[in-house]
Design goal:
Blueprint lengths: L1 E4 L6 E6 L2 E7 L19 H14 L16 H10 L8 E2 H7 L7 H9 L12 E2 L12 H15 L1
Parallel strand pairs: 4-5
Antiparallel strand pairs: 1-2, 2-3
Helix pairs in contact: 3-4
């Protein structure tokens, strides 16, 4: 099942399967890359209703920690990276090297961390936007740099 909501970063399509969020997609929406059918739109599914509620509260600067059932699909390494991303606190950032070190790797793994970060299927809730370059610069973002900046601005403005 899936639903769509408006947000400051454009329309978001929220996808659930077996009562867990499996994807949040930025518009323009594309068919699932793994060939899975999306199922039907269901704006009243309890998990999707709660996801919309929490995302709305996040964008209103009223929510700093998401509490949603998540089921991202990926390799073991990707899952480890995505789990580590969830430890980056609201309004904070970390570098790709920081994430690599937290996973027990050297800076040489930074590129692999970046690739896993870019494949995060549940952006915003799994906060891949909080990962920046070692020099503090904004680096690539699957949703586009303007969206990344907006998400970081939402969190910074809520802290001050």
């Amino acid at each position: 099942m899936w639903t769509v909501m408006d947000s400051p970063v454009g329309e978001l399509r929220i996808v659930e399967h077996d009562d867990a969020i499996t994807a949040i997609e930025f518009s323009p929406f594309r068919p699932p890359s793994d060939g899975r059918p999306l199922g039907e739109r269901d704006d009243d599914h309890p998990v999707l209703v709660e996801a919309r509620r929490q995302l709305t509260a996040y964008f209103a600067r009223e929510l700093t920690d998401f509490d949603l059932p998540l089921d991202p699909r990926g390799t073991d390494f990707q899952l480890r990276v995505w789990k580590e991303l969830q430890t980056i606190g609201y309004g904070r950032t970390a570098s790709y090297g920081d994430i690599a070190h937290q996973l027990g790797h050297t800076n040489a793994a930074s590129r692999a961390v970046g690739l896993a970060n870019g494949r995060n299927p549940i952006p915003i809730v799994i906060p891949c936007h909080r990962v920046i370059g070692a020099d503090g610069s904004l680096t690539g973002y699957a949703g586009g740099m303007a969206r990344k900046q907006t998400l970081l601005d939402v969190e910074q403005e809520a802290l001050f």
